[in-house]
Amino acid sequence: MFASLNPISEGIRSVFIKKASKDFDSILISWANNFLPVIVFTPILFFIDLKFNTLFFVGLFGSSLINVAANILYMRAISKGDISTVMPMQSFAPVFLLLSSPIILGEFPNLVGLLGILTGVAGSYLLNLDMKEKNIFAPFKSLVKEKGTKYMLTVAFLWSISANFDKIAIQNSSTWQYMACTNIVVFTGITILATTTKKFKVRSFKGDKKYLLIISAFTVGSYIFHMTALSLTLAAYVIAMKRMSALISVFLGSFFLNEPNLKQRLVGAAVMFAGVLLIVFS
C-alpha cells in the first residue's frame, strides 16, 4: 500500500507545482519544496544511532550537491511543459543508471536490463509521436527541442549519477540518517542559491502561497511513504511503483490541467514504465 501511495503523492504534487509555477520562480518552489521535510525529518537524528565516516560524507555531499541542481531543474521542467509529457521523462533515470553504475559502482546490466533500455526509448518515442508529422525522427527532435522534456531528461541524468552516491551514503550509515542529512544539505544549498540570486524579495512571494505549502506537504508524504515501503518490501518493488507517478501524471494532466492527447501519451508512458520494470527486475 505504501509503495503505491508514493507515486500518487508525487503525481498530485506535480499538479500543484504546475499551478505554483505561474506565480513563483523555480528556485523558490524548490526552496519551499524542501522546507517542511527539513523541519519534520531533522529531529530524527536525535533518536537514531548515527554513523559517520569518509564514504558517508562522499555519498552525502556528492548526491546532495547534484540534487540542488536537479531540484531546481525539476521544477523548471514542470513549469515549461505539460506534466503528461514531462513527468514520464523520469523513466530515463534507470536507463541512465545502467550507464553510470558500471563506471561508479562497477555494476553491469544483463540482457534483460538492456532490453529495458530499448523499451524505455520506444516509450519516449511514442510519447512524443505526432501522427500528423511525417518525419520519423520528429519525436526524438522534440526531446531536445521542448524545454520541459529537455530539463527533465537532464534531471533524470543527474539522478542516475546521484543514485550511486545515495547507495554509498546509505551503505555507510542508515536510510533515515541519510534522508535527514541530505534534506539539510539540499535545503541549505538552495537557500544559499536563492539568497545570492536575490529570490527572497517581497515581490517574489506575490502569489497564492498555499500552493508552496501543499507542495512541501506532499514531499513529506512522499518521503514517508517511500521509506515505510522500503522497510516492508523489496526495494525493487518500491522503485518500480515509484515510477508509476509518470502514468498518474498523464491522467492528472488531462483531467485537471486540460492537457491534450491523453490516449497517445498514456500509451507512451505505459511502454516507458514497462521498460522500467524490465530494468528494475533485471
Describe the structure in your own words:
The structure is a single chain. With 282 residues, this protein is mostly helical. Helix 2 (26-33) packs antiparallel against helix 10 (175-196), helix 7 (111-127) packs antiparallel against helix 14 (262-280) and helix 13 packs antiparallel against helix 14 (262-280). The protein has helices spanning 2-20, 26-33, 35-41, 54-80, 83-86, 92-104, 111-127, 138-145, 147-171, 175-196, 210-232, 235-242, 245-257, 262-280. The chain has one domain (2-280).
Summed up:
This protein has 282 residues and is mostly helical.
Which terms would index this structure?
single chain; about 280 residues; mainly alpha; about 0% strand
Give the topology:
Elements: H1 2-20, H2 26-33, H3 35-41, H4 54-80, H5 83-86, H6 92-104, H7 111-127, H8 138-145, H9 147-171, H10 175-196, H11 210-232, H12 235-242, H13 245-257, H14 262-280
Helix pairs in contact: 1-11, 1-12, 1-13, 2-4, 2-10, 3-10, 3-11, 4-9, 4-10, 6-7, 6-9, 6-14, 7-14, 8-9, 12-14, 13-14
Instruction: Report the strand count.
Output: 0
Topology pattern, helix = H, strand = E:
HHHHHHHHHHHHHH
Based on Cα principal axes, name the global outline: globular
End-to-end separation in angstroms reads: 23 Å
The domain tally reads 1
Number of helices: 14
Low-confidence stretches: none
Strand content: under 5%
Rg for CA atoms: 18 Å
Structural class: mainly alpha
Main beta sheet strand tally, sense and closure:
none
